[in-house]
Design goal:
3-stranded antiparallel β-sheet; two-stranded antiparallel sheet
Length: about 90
């Protein structure tokens, strides 16, 4: 499902216009991105938690020639599904 399909389905379920749903979705995603980029968590009970984690520096390999490549430490987004979401997906 892509964003357009998500907006259309959500609009049908909520009885809102697609423009309203898309504006709300964009705002929610923006808030999540800004909050997580600051290092804070966004917890949606039953759905999951968005957070930021540190990835350590490591050594990788160039697949073309096999040479070692130093991959620097970085911060990456992380999502941990909530119990209700995990239970629904596992059925």
């Amino acid at each position: 499902m892509n964003k357009a399909e998500l907006v259309k389905k959500s609009a049908q379920l909520s009885k809102l216009s697609q423009a309203q749903v898309e504006a709300a979705l964009d705002a929610i995603v923006d808030v999540i991105e800004k909050t997580v980029s600051k290092g804070d968590e966004v917890k949606l009970v039953g759905f999951g938690t968005f957070s930021r984690t540190k990835r350590k520096e490591r050594v990788g390999r160039n697949p073309q020639n096999g040479n070692s490549v130093k991959i620097p430490a970085t911060k990456v987004p992380k999502f941990r599904p909530g119990k209700d979401f995990r239970d629904r997906v596992s059925q």
